[in-house]
Write a structure and sequence with these properties.
It is built from twelve helices and no strands. With 293 residues, it is mainly alpha-helical.
């Protein structure tokens, strides 16, 4: 009978499953569309990467990339495009799944306002496990010092496969986990309140979501930028002595002459890239969520 409790429970479970699937679908769609500006601003990202690795001023990096030509300019673009799409699918979907579980089982343990950030923290950890190999390959490809002995994506994959996970695909896993977990926690914890705050100024829902993603990503990028610099330096090289996180940090700090300003070299370009991609992704995701609700 259609009115039995078991049947109603099955219907509720089905609807809940559809809602959870939609969050993954919406996350993937929003991130896929945001790969268009990712492709456009990839030269900006590569410029930042060279500054992180070689600590060169902006004009020297631009001259170096110009000399290498357009073909090498987009070397290493495939991993971030693929990673960006899969990342949004997993991050938004998994955060929503964890949030729903926390909302139904942990209301007495955690404050309701803290649940989105807590769910984001858990999603960020899973994100690090899944996508550290992508970031490793991307950073190896973007380091011009590897062009001669690792000229193709296939050669990079084959070389990393022969190494232990800690020095191969999962090099710099700990700082990536810290960066992703903290970044996701801040993003999902602040996205809603910031959106509500800017909406008071009379912005449309889409504009409010875009502003929320932009402002939140700006804060996250500035806060966690040193971890991104550390990760880039740890992952760019293949082979040699695999130093620990603290040893790599000390080496990086000394190479930057113990200067915070030099450590943040290229940070303004990171803000630009994050503002564009996360602003668009947030606006598209929120719009899809409102349409399906």
């Amino acid at each position: 009978m259609t009115g039995t409790p078991d049947h109603k429970q099955d219907e509720e479970s089905f609807r809940d499953g559809v809602v959870r699937f939609q969050s993954y679908l919406h996350g993937g769609t929003s991130s896929l569309l945001s790969t268009i500006p990712t492709l456009i601003v990839f030269p900006v990202y590569k410029t930042v990467f060279r500054q992180q690795i070689h600590n060169n001023p902006l004009h020297q990096v631009v001259a170096q990339l110009y000399k290498e030509g357009p073909v090498k300019l987009y070397r290493g673009v495939a991993p971030p495009l693929l990673m960006r799409t899969l990342n949004g699918t997993l991050l938004f979907g998994l955060q929503d799944t964890i949030l729903r579980h926390l909302s139904t089982s942990s209301q007495q343990v955690f404050p309701t306002a803290a649940l989105p950030a807590l769910a984001g923290f858990g999603a960020g950890i899973v994100e690090a496990v899944v996508f550290t190999p992508f970031e490793r390959v991307q950073n190896v490809l973007q380091n011009s010092q590897n062009d001669r002995h690792l000229p193709t994506l296939k050669s990079v994959l084959q070389t990393l496969k022969t190494q232990r996970p800690a020095s191969g695909y999962y090099r710099a896993f700990l700082p990536i986990t810290a960066r992703n977990a903290l970044g996701s926690s801040l993003y999902f914890g602040l996205k809603g309140p910031v959106c509500a705050l800017v909406a008071v100024e009379g912005l449309s829902p889409t504009a409010s979501s875009f502003a929320s993603g932009t402002l939140t990503s700006m804060l996250i990028s500035l806060t966690l930028y040193p971890l991104s610099v550390l990760v880039a330096n740890m992952q760019a090289q293949v082979g040699g002595e695999a130093k620990g996180v603290m040893d790599c940090w000390r080496t990086l700090w000394r190479s930057r002459q113990r200067s915070v300003a030099l450590l943040y070299r290229g940070g303004s370009l990171v803000i630009l890239r994050s503002c564009i991609t996360w602003g668009i992704a947030t606006a598209i995701y929120d719009r899809q969520e409102k349409r399906s609700s």
